[in-house]
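Each record in this resource describes a single protein on a pair of labelled lines. An example record follows, reproduced without changes.
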Amino acid sequence: MTPMAETALLLVDLQNDFIHPEGAYGRAGQSAPEIAALPARLKPLAELMRAKGGWIVATQFTLVPAKNQILISPHLQKLRPFLERRDFEPGSWGHRLVDELQPADLSVEKIAYSAFYMTRLEWILRKCDIRQLIVGGIVTNGGVASTLRDAHVRDFEAMVLEDGCAAFSPEVHRVAIEALRPVCRVATVAEAMEEIGRA
C-alpha cells in the first residue's frame, strides 16, 4: 500500500446541505437512508487515517452567489428546483463538511460532478505529495464516479469504498460501483481499515 503520508481519504460532498435534516436537501425531503448513514460509517476510517498520518480531503459542492442570484448549471436547476439563494453558499453552515467527519486537512470547492473540474484539487494533491485516494461520499453515480474517472486519467491510485458511498437508490449505486471497477479498486470500509491498520 502507498505510504499513509501520500494517501488521502477523499470525502465527496458530505456537506450539511446534502446530509443534515435541516440542510437544503433535508428540508426538501430529498434524501435516502443509505446517504444519511454515511457519516457514521466513515467516521472510524477518518479517525484511523488521522492516527496513521494520512490526509482528510473534503470536496464541497458550491452554488456561487452573484448579486441577487446563484450561479447554477441549467440541468441542476431543472433537477433540483428547490435550491435557493444561500444553499451551498461558501462559508455557510450548509456548505461545510458534516460535523461527524470534521476536521478536513484540505477542502476544495467544486461546481460540477467532478472534484477535478475547474478546481485546485489536482494542484493541492500534487503539492502535498498525495498519490493515493480512498474515496467515499455522494452520489456514487455522480460526484463520486466523475471524480474517480478524472483521478484515473491523472494517474492517481484510487480506491472506491463500496459501502462508503451512496446514491438515491441502491440499484443506481450498485450499477455505478460495477462501472467503476475498470478505473479503480473497489473495497469496503472494513477492508480499507484493515489495510491502513497494517500500514
Remarks:
- Residues 4-61+97-198 form a domain with the Rossmann fold fold (CATH 3.40.50.850).
